[in-house]
Design brief:
It is a single chain. About 30% of the residues lie in helices and about 30% in strands. It is an alpha/beta fold. The chain has a single domain, classed as Glutaredoxin (3-Layer(aba) Sandwich). A five-stranded mixed beta sheet has the order 1-3-2-4-5. Strand 4 and strand 5 form a beta hairpin. The longest helix has 11 residues.
């Protein structure tokens, strides 16, 4: 399940549990190619932050390349990686933290 995150809902949505967050932009070609892999992960909660619309969140996590992924556990960063990823890679990274 893809959930658009912004300045209003980011803290509330990420404060509990293990969450996969993707930072992206509308102009990023790699981000557009990444989208089908994320959509294929139907049963996994994935938060998406458009860095152009939520620059405060991107700055808080020092994100400046796209796509960048964070795994947060109870609101704290436990893993970070960048670049296009297959759904299998994303799943294995999430499962390490559950």
């Amino acid at each position: 399940m893809l959930k658009e995150l912004n300045n209003d809902n980011f803290s509330e949505e990420t404060k509990n549990g293990t969450k996969l967050i993707e930072f992206h932009t509308s102009w990023c070609g790699y981000c557009k190619k990444q989208q089908p892999e994320l959509e294929a992960m139907e049963k996994v909660w994935i938060g998406q932050v458009d860095a152009d619309n939520a620059p405060k969140i991107a700055a808080e996590f020092n994100v400046n390349s796209f796509p960048t992924f964070l795994i947060l556990k109870d609101g704290k960063e436990v893993e970070r990686f960048s670049g296009m990823r297959k759904k299998e890679d994303l799943m294995s990274r999430i499962l390490k933290h559950i």
